[in-house]
Amino acid sequence: MSDAPFVRRDHQRGIALLTLDSPHNRNALSARLVTELREGLDEAVKDPGVRAILLTHTGSTFCAGADLKDPAAGGPLGLAELLRSIVESPKPVVAEVTGHARAGGLGLLAACDISVAGEGASFAFTEARLGLAPAVISLTVLPRTDPRAAARYYLTGEVFDAAEAVRIGLVSATADALDGILDGLRAASPQGLAESKRLTTAEVLRTFDRDTAALAEQSARLFASPEAAEGIRSFAERRSPSWTR
């Protein structure tokens, strides 16, 4: 495996740029990627020259979800901690998606304060098709997404596009809005951003306080189940799982 970073860091006019760059596993949430992403977030938060953080990606996939071969330290709780660190960051985090986002990648996207998606972006909650459920990522997804749409896409695993992601509230805007969003963040004061963000994330953080332990337990239980083993095995073998009709 290359020694190149899985999360590249850059700086552009007051914006810390964190680029997911782990093409061998489609930017899945491996132990190394999660560690490097948390380090990049921490560095950006501590840098007085950074007004906001832009999370983007290389390749055709923003994030494929959990890395089943190399899970993040702490398992489901480790993922919850990553998502909470984004929500709690006093500096706004903006996500730019120009490719595919699946499963846990949608939780990462929903943790960000603002998100934009290009025409080539696609989204799917694929967990139910593998014998799993979008448990931990519900901490960020459900407070910010239309409940009827969440029910549909959680249950069916259907793929939907950027326009639908904007309509249901999972994504803030289409990609052409990004420059204006970043200019607006550059024009705001650090205190104004931090205190305004505190207002918009209060309910999400209450959800973390209330539900993290139960959702992490649910996720761990499902991953250890025979149905999930069959679902994950069938996915790796590119065949239909035994329950498909």
From TrEMBL:
Entries under InterPro entries matching the protein: ClpP/crotonase-like_dom_sf, Enoyl-CoA_hydra/iso, Enoyl-CoA_hydra_C, Enoyl-CoA_Hydratase/Isomerase
Pfam families named in the record? ECH_1
Q: Which domain of life is it from?
A: Bacteria
Q: Which PANTHER family match?
A: ENOYL-COA HYDRATASE, POLYKETIDE BIOSYNTHESIS ENOYL-COA HYDRATASE PKSH-RELATED
Similarity comment text for this entry: Belongs to the enoyl-CoA hydratase/isomerase family.
Q: What is this protein called?
A: Enoyl-CoA hydratase family protein
Organism this protein belongs to:
Streptomyces fildesensis
